[in-house]
Amino acid sequence: MSEAVTRIQVGGTAGTDPYEVLVGRQLLGELGGLIGEKAQRVAIVHPEALAETGDALRADLAEQGYEVVAVQVPNAEEAKTAEVAAYCWKALGQSGFTRTDVIVGVGGGATTDLAGFVAATWLRGVRWIAIPTTVLAMVDAAVGGKTGINTAEGKNLVGAFHPPAGVLCDLAALDSLPVNDYVSGLAEVIKAGFIADPVILDLIESDAEAARTPAGPHTAELIERSIRVKADVVSSDLKESGLREILNYGHTLGHAIEKNERYKWRHGAAVSVGMHFAAELGRLAGRLDDATADRHRTILEAVGLPLHYRHDQWPKLLETMKVDKKSRGNLLRFIVLDGLAKPTVLEGPDPAVLLAAYGEVGQ
Ligand SMILES: NC(=O)c1ccc[n+]([C@@H]2O[C@H](COP(=O)([O-])OP(=O)(O)OC[C@H]3O[C@@H](n4cnc5c(N)ncnc54)[C@H](O)[C@@H]3O)[C@@H](O)[C@H]2O)c1
Ligand SMILES: O=C(O)C(=O)C[C@@H](O)[C@H](O)[C@H](O)COP(=O)(O)O
Ligand SMILES: [Zn+2]
């Protein structure tokens, strides 16, 4: 695929407003149009790591005549807390932020989740725009309108569905991303490959080492394909009444690991272990063929993602998984594969099968 700007539409069905995800370079010229003429104030929410980007955006928007409120938040998961959300609300309140004003979230998935949540809750919902700067945020977090924060009890337990007005994925942002964060984002790319678009897996396997950097030959195509998978799903099921659950592949155990690590692990790394677990669960439940299950190990390992977690933590992880958002009452529910690109729900698996699947993951 070329480096020209690609536009992917999301929503516009079932009463939802459509918006576009743009993928390319030098996209900031698009921001003014997305903010619109009604806004007087723009709040830029960005992490510490992107202080310079925040400053540059502030100067640019101020030059365009907006009153700019810059809200710097902590890096990574430390931003997804009630305290940081309250700090953002205070900044908005002190600036006189009204319903016609606009929030811009610039950063990784943690920042866009927080910025979207602040937008969903301020005055019961204001317009927001996402400028994702990690692979993970481009292909997943910034698209689809799931916004939220963590609590000590679990991942993303507080949140709202509040889609952005637009998403600008400037591939140049990826050049400054540490390799571990780049690779962590590949977990969601690989997820999209297993649940819906196996070409993604072929492209990564063709040169897994190159896939670990933005200079790889397939970067733009991998990102665009993954966005299309997400866009297709959320366009038909914004509020997760059914189909959208497939995007949770690998997340039931992944989120439990994140909580167990007090949110110090990167989301993508935890989801990688979670997908390994889901593959073994699918295999042991008699759903998934050996070749596809084994492919999880080889591809995740080839890009440098983890497959294993502490074996002695199973009882705690199981307790946490019981309050996963997909659970219904006491019924544990997992996304597994019936085959490549055939995601399905496995309800109430036999505890012995669960334990055996974890036996492949625990170390
Ligand atoms: N809402 C959703 O649908 C959805 C989907 C997937 C993941 N998520 C959430 O996304 C979060 C993970 O996002 P992530 O993997 O992007 O991690 P992240 O947001 O924690 O970012 C990782 C680190 O990279 C820094 N950073 C961001 N962009 C940078 C850049 N261009 N150059 C240098 N440093 C940069 C960040 O400040 C942070 O320190 C999790 O909280 C996860 O729950 C949400
Ligand atoms: O968009 C979705 O739906 C997803 O499940 C995508 C996941 O990658 C993402 O991590 C999401 O935030 C998880 O949602 P949650 O509802 O399980 O918290
Ligand atoms: Zn995820």
From TrEMBL:
Family: Belongs to the sugar phosphate cyclases superfamily. Dehydroquinate synthase family.
Enzyme Commission number: 4.2.3.4
Keywords recorded for this protein, A-Z: Amino-acid biosynthesis, Aromatic amino acid biosynthesis, Cobalt, Cytoplasm, Lyase, Metal-binding, NAD, Nucleotide-binding, Zinc
Lineage of origin: Bacteria, Bacillati, Actinomycetota, Actinomycetes, Kitasatosporales
Catalytic activity line of the entry: 7-phospho-2-dehydro-3-deoxy-D-arabino-heptonate = 3-dehydroquinate + phosphate
SUPFAM superfamilies xref list: Dehydroquinate synthase-like
Species assigned in the record: Streptomyces violaceochromogenes
EC class name: lyase
Protein name (database record): 3-dehydroquinate synthase
